[in-house]
Input
Amino acid sequence: MSSSMSTLRNQFLIAMPHLKDPNFEGTISYICDHNDEGAMGIVINRPLDIRLSDMLAQLELGGEGIAMPVYSGGPVQIERGFVLHSPLGDWQSSIEIAPDICITTSKDILEAMARGVGPDRTLVALGYAGWGAGQLEKEISNNFWITCPADSAIIFRTPDSEKVVSALGRVGIDYHRLSSISGHA
Output
């Protein structure tokens, strides 16, 4: 992370319209960590064709009837599960990213969700988005991404199709007016 750029932890990373990478085209990611070694985030608007009840059944945890979608969190370690949630709770492997947003990777949170006693707000993802040292900063300087402050309501309550527009609207940007052509002044 360059000294000219502060951490992007607890920020949204929104793909510019000209970013045609199939892993990120049209996405909004929540940045969970960002430091000198790189960045890690979860794509929050790409539901998979799988429901949480299906995943819980595959893990033999029960949870029948939970219609919540499971998301494609990114192209790295797509077999690994991540749960963004609020409030923090007492799970084996949780990190508080912001006062109202945590990430957990341990199975105990899924067990609690299957029993109906999990966190109030959740987003379950398989895989994550990762960037090496300096990679994300370079992509931002090349106009592939827009960053803006994260909002838990967008993660947990906003329909997937509205997340990008809602996040940009919070900082006064009209997504529909963004150009699909990039450049530098």
